Amino acid sequence: MTFKANWQPPDRLGGLRRFAIAITVFNILGHTVFGFEQPWATPFVSVGTAYFFEIVFELLDCYIHGHKPRFAGGWRSLIDFLLSAHITGMAVAMLLYANARFMPVVFAGAVAISSKMLFRVTVEGRARHFLNPSNFGIATTLLLFPSVGIAAPYHFTENLSPAASWIVPAIIVVSGSFLNIRFTKRIFVAVGWVTAFFVQAVIRHYVLGHSLSGALLPLTGVTLVLFTFYMVTDPATTPFTPRSQFVFGASVALVYGLLVSLHVVFGFFFALATVSLVRGVTLYAQNYVKATADQRVAAQGALVVAREKA
User: Fold this and answer.
1) pLDDT digits over 143-169, tens only?
2) Position 173 in a domain
3) Which of 126, 158, 202, 272 has the highest count of CB atoms within 10 angstroms of its CB?
4) Is residue 171 part of a domain?
C-alpha cells in the first residue's frame, strides 16, 4: 500500500537515456574486453537496421495521420526519438549469434521494430505496442533460422579474471535494480520473475526429477541477469501496478519452466513472447467487451429518449 501511495509515473525518457548509455558501454566493452564473439560490425548493422525502420514507420504514420515527425526539431529530438530503436538494435546484436552472417541480424532488427507498429492495443486511451520488440525479434529469428542461436553465456566474461567475472553481473544487478526502481518503476516484474523462477525449479526437481542446482544455475549467468533487469522489465510492454507486474514476471518464469520441461531451447525468449502475446490479446478482448457494453448502453439510452419523445 505504501508503494501505491507514493507511486509516480515512470520517467520514460530518463530511463531510455540511461538504458541506451548502459547497453552501448556494455557492447563496447564486450567487443574490446569481455570476449564477445560476434563480428565487430554486428552492432552497427543491427542498430542501423533499427534506426531505418523506426524512421520509415514514423514517416508512414505522419503521412497517414498528417502530423509532424516526432524527430523534428533538431538533433536532440532525433536522438531522443531513436533511443528506443538504439536499445533494440544493441540488444539484438548482443544476444543473437549468427556467426559471420548479418542477414539474420537485419531480419531480427526489422521484425523487432515492425512489431511495435503492427501489434498494438489501446491502454488507458493510448495505442501501445504489447510485444517486447527485441525479444520478439530474437524469438522470431530463432524460430525461422535453425542455424542461428543465442550468444554463448561464457562470452560475456570470457576474457575476464575470476573476480571480474563476478563483478560484471554484480554491476548489472545493481544498475538494473536502480534503473527499474528509480526510472521505469518495473522492479516488481523482476521480483515476480526471480521468485517464480525458484518455484518452477523446485517443482521440476520434485515432480520431474530435474537437478535443482541445474534448474537454478541459468539464473546466475550474465545472459539471464541481463534478461531479468533489462528485457523482461521493459516499461512499454509490461503492466503498471505492482501486483500486475509481479504476476506478469511470475507468468514468464512459469511458462519458461513448462517450455524447459518440454525440452524447448531458448525458453526464456519464447516464454516472454508468449506471455506478452496473451496479455495483448487479453487487453484487446477487454477493450472489445467494454466498447460493446458502451454501445449497448448508448443504444438503450437513445431508445428511451425516442420513446419519451413519442
Assistant:
1) 999 999 999 888 898 899 999 989 999
2) yes
3) 272
4) yes
Q: What is the 3-state secondary structure (H, E, C) of 103-157?
A: HHHHHHHHHHHHHHHHCEEEECCEEEECCCHHHHHHHHHHHHCCCCEECCHHHHC
Q: How many CA atoms lie within 13 A of 262 on its CB side?
A: 12
Strands 126-129 vs 120-123: parallel, antiparallel or unpaired = antiparallel
Assigned domain for 5 exists? no
pTM of the model: 0.90
Give Rg (Cα) of the chain: 21
In the block, residue with C-alpha cell 542461428: 148
What is the structure's pLDDT at 252? 98
Looking at the chain, the whole-number percentage of residues with pLDDT higher than 70 is 96
Position of cell 501501445? Answer: 128
Domain that holds residue 82: 10-309
DSSP symbols for the chain = -HHHHH-----HHHHHHHHHHHHHHHHHHIIIII---S-TTHHHHHHHHHHHHHHHHHHHHHHHHT---TT-SSHHHHHHHHHHHHHHHHHHHHHEE-TT--HHHHHHHHHHHHHHHHSEEEETTEEEE-S-HHHHHHHHHHHH-TT-EEPPGGGGSTTS-HHHHHHHHHHHHHHHHHHHHHTS--HHHHHHHHHHHHHHHHHHHHHH---HHHHHGGGGSHHHHHHHHHTTT-TTSS-SSHHHHHHHHHHHHHHHHHHHHTT-SSHHHHHHHHHHHHHHHHHHHHHHHHHHHHHHHHHHHHHHHHHHH-
Q: Please check whether residue 1 lies inside any domain of the structure.
A: no
Whether 3 has a pLDDT exceeding 60, the answer reads no
How far is the C-alpha of 306 from the C-alpha of 291, rounded, in Å?
22
Question: In total, how many domains does the chain have?
Answer: 1
Confidence (pLDDT) at 306: 72
Alpha carbons 310 and 308: distance in angstroms, whole number: 5
